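Design request, tokens follow.
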């Protein structure tokens, strides 16, 4: 008959063996992610070259003071309005159709260019010139757009009054 096993010997690794295995695992991870690590190092070099890394270090070293200043600035009454206005602006942009906004900005940009050109020449338009320009299809389109805009804005303002 066999003898019962009463004592089990566990082989324990020495600290040196554990460290060796840990280093081997880290080296394997580095080898597996070589490209990512190289990209990260390039990014860090660029941040260092531009001084951003130094700014971040300074920011982290003085984070309590910076946080305190930020809280003080946010607690000013004007900041509450800025935050509310920003949120309202984001809401407005979310409601707008992108194609319509693009068309309006394109027209605005072209109009600003034309206005800048006429400001350079300092050309004055008399009453006869104004009457003549009303026959221009571009001016009529713009005036029609502005009248419709004013009508829609008035409609929106009146709806706000009733709510």
């Amino acid at each position: 008959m066999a003898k019962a096993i009463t004592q089990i010997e566990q082989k324990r690794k020495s600290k040196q063996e554990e460290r060796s295995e840990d280093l081997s695992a880290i080296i394997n991870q580095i080898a597996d992610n070589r490209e990512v690590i190289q990209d990260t190092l390039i990014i860090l070099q660029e941040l260092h070259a531009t001084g951003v890394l130094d700014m971040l270090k300074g920011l982290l070293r003085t984070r309590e003071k910076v946080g305190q200043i930020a809280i003080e600035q946010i607690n000013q009454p004007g900041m509450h309005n800025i935050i509310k206005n920003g949120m309202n602006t984001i809401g407005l942009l979310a409601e707008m159709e992108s194609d319509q906004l693009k068309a309006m900005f394109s027209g605005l940009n072209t109009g600003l260019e034309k206005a800048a050109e006429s400001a350079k020449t300092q050309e004055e338009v008399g009453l006869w010139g104004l009457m003549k320009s009303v026959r221009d299809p571009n001016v009529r389109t713009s005036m029609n757009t502005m009248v419709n805009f004013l009508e829609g804005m008035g409609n929106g303002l009146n709806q706000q009054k009733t709510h």
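Comment from the thread starter after seeing the answer: thanks! The longest helix spans residues 137-162.
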